[in-house]
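User: I'm putting together notes for a lab meeting next week and I want to include a structural view of one of the chains we've been expressing. I don't have a solved structure, so I'd like a prediction I can at least talk through. The sequence is below, exactly as it appears in our construct file.
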Amino acid sequence: MKSFITTSGCSSTLLATVWLVLGLPLLGESLSMGYKYGRPRNGFMYPPPKPKGVTLPPDQWFVQKLDHFNPTDTSTWSQRYFTNSSFYKPGGPVFLMIGGEGPANPIWMVEGAWIPYAERLNAYLISLEHRYYGKSHPTEDVSVENLVYLSSEQALADLATFTVAMKEKLGLKDNKWIAFGGSYPGSLAAWYRLKYPHLVHGSIASSAPIVAQIDFREYLEVVRDALATVSEACNTAIKEATRQLQLLMAHRVGWQNITKRFKLCVPLDGTKKLDVSNLFATLAGYIEEVVQYNKDNRGFEGVKGVNITIETLCNILMDEKKGPAIARYGEINDMFLALEGESCLDYTYDNMIKEFQATSWENNTDVGGRSWIYQTCTEFGFYQGSDSHEQPFGDEFPLQFYTRQCQDIFGPRISPEVLNAGVRRTNAVYGGHDLKVTRVVFPNGSIDPWHALGVTSNISDEATAIFIDGTAHCANMYPASTTDPPQLTQAREKIFSLLQKWLKD
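Assistant: Thanks for the context. Below is the predicted structure for the 505-residue chain, given as structure tokens.
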């Protein structure tokens, strides 16, 4: 569908017809500033809830090299980690939880599906936070010059250096180490086994994208398929809401009505293509978020809306009694603004870019913030643009909308050539679809859009896939629930069986 963004070109008669068809209210005013952006979506694995009455392990610190690949650079920094030895018995394995694109959470040391595994196998639990996330700050800030030390290869070398040191410090030299990770850390778990097989005996690589890909158009296609599990009418409603929204972009009076209906913080100017793209991407992002984490039992503390499911959204979108499709889309927006405690939606591209240009650690605490965007711009891509015609969200936030953010945030040094070369290098270093590993299992959920870049069928007898119908991102890693479908329970038991087998090898 072509964009309808123009400064004019729509007669007053046509506008009146549009208003009657869409059932739009009178013109409105913008509200106070709020924040919600259509930035690249990551796959962060949120923590489970903290059990009542349980004391969490304290922060511990490991002196780590800044640059593992420059022997003349002796700079060091302190990396955060956690341990739990309460299940351990001599000779038991060591379970290493790999951190990712957000703070490491000690809740994982007492909760999650790996805890029953540890109890049954007498495992020692360790979690290592990823450099440049959480409290693990290798440099004084996250300027472009300092981000040069942020890469998956440096992170894997962190794991290797840490493992060698902990084997000595904790007396675990002869124990078998098993890596656990979900999403990007799931990729690291597989790649750790690939690059350092003498240090890690096996890996559980949950919801792990193993292929770097700039144009991740399959993401929205899986979102479409997930919505269709409720009803194809859900996708139809989104398509119609998008069509109506694009139709209103044809005239400045339409911009004013969009401003009111979607509670925009500043009046929409439909000639600003990047603002328009950001608005469409943000609205689609609400639905992407729910699909990606649908019914995953995370229920983590302090975060609202975890009970919002695909069914919740589709029931709103398909309810014609609520008015035209665009009004139902607006209700989804209202729901998420309320959950975030925001009175309006800041959709402007410039504000988004300014937020991610901040280089102080204090301004970079968000999951999937500046550090993660840097990794997408230099290693992975993973951009979920609207270029595919097999999805319901229109075509207003194409791949170029995301790729240009690399230079707009980090400057001309992070060019399209750097992005292309970085993605090629990642697949060359790790193998992409041609990954060659043993004793690695790849659990993925059919609802999770990230499975499109993962392993969903066996690579070999020693690198197996578990494709879990109807489950979302990293669902197998969360604590068991009475509402879990049987296929999820079976997946967790399959993983345990593989652990038993590997530990006998």
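A couple of points you could mention at the meeting. The longest helix spans residues 273-292. The beta strands are 60-65, 76-84, 94-98, 124-128, 177-182, 202-206, 213-215, 381-383, 440-445, 463-468.

User: Perfect, that's what I needed.
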